[in-house]
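Quick check before the chapter quiz. The format below is the same one you will see on the exam, so make sure you can read both the input and the output lines.
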Amino acid sequence: MASANQRAEFMPQCHQASNSLRRMRRMSDLGRTWTRQQPTPNAELYDSATHTERGALRFSIPISRVAETVKLRAVDHLYVVMLETKKTFSATKEEALKETREMVGENINWKEGFAVWKILSHILTPEKSAVDVPSNFMEGGEYVPAFRATCYRSGKHSFSSQEAMAEFGGQLHTTFNWTVNLKNYDVDVVLIIDDDRVSVCLALTNEPLFRRNITFFGPTTLRATIAYSMVRMGEPKAGDVVCDPMCGSGSIPIEAALGFSNLQVICGDNFLAASVKTMENVRGIERSLGIPIRNVDAVQWDLVAFPLRSNTVDVWVSDFPFGKRHKCNRRELYPRALIAMARASKPGVTRAVILTKDRQAMAFALKATQFWYLRKVIGVNIGGLNAWVYSLFRTTFV
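Here is the expected output.
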């Protein structure tokens, strides 16, 4: 086991990596936005070496504190970086793949990487209590893991991601004699090639961290990590009233209530089953955590006829309906929703964060009212759809 003063480099991903790193949308930009606006609850984890990239944030922390990384609410996956280097691959495929195989023998910090992997494996997957540092890196050890290799690649190279994955994984098997298992694996060794920058990592999360809180799903349940990032974009302060007027199954209000215990969260939906699912999800979290959650409540209401008094809400955070599953006239709904929200807002104070894919309907709605000032728009990948997060500010117009 590594000593407490040793450090591990982490790479939490803000959006799940696909076959090409170029497809990592601007979820990292969303993270950078709220990081600037106010400190994160785990800001003390980061040091001066922290830097962002497409869809990811890298930072270094002591190994003794790696268990705290699971508290980061805005990331989907966690990786521990064992090697980061610059490498110009040969122009010919055969030579480039040979260089990929040779990377297994480079100065990869396997021992500390597996020490971190062991700690978080016991936390995130307690059913795998038998996992240990492989015998290759621990004197007297007997543990031989089942593994798979994964490659994420971007840039121009003479080989494909699948070819690099096969060569790198084959060399791992030859060198360490680990068992290959692509489905029921213990450890996922990840090779990331971004132009001439190469990283070798261990995946610390078999299941995405956004799969939390929700047990009663709606037709378009929002990822918990995106919901939390949207709440942070609203810059909530202690004592603020946060409202989601179209709560669905409750991803946004639940993240607001759990991530910010000093807020009062209210939410509702025109569909009765939606508010019922929200409270069922809250009750499920209460049972799993063993503590009551008293700062969130859900009701059924009509968005354009709020039961809320004027000058009530400090922050609006909502996932507006879009796509084929929501059959409504959005050019009619969006303006009426913004006007109703403005009535219950505090002029010159209230912020709103709205997610939608329908840019035309939102542009029409903003032009149709004088109550909201557009601060910024950020692109987000929602299950392969290019959606947009609008950050609005309530004007002083009444």
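If your answer matched, good. Residues 104 and 172 are 7 Å apart (CA to CA).
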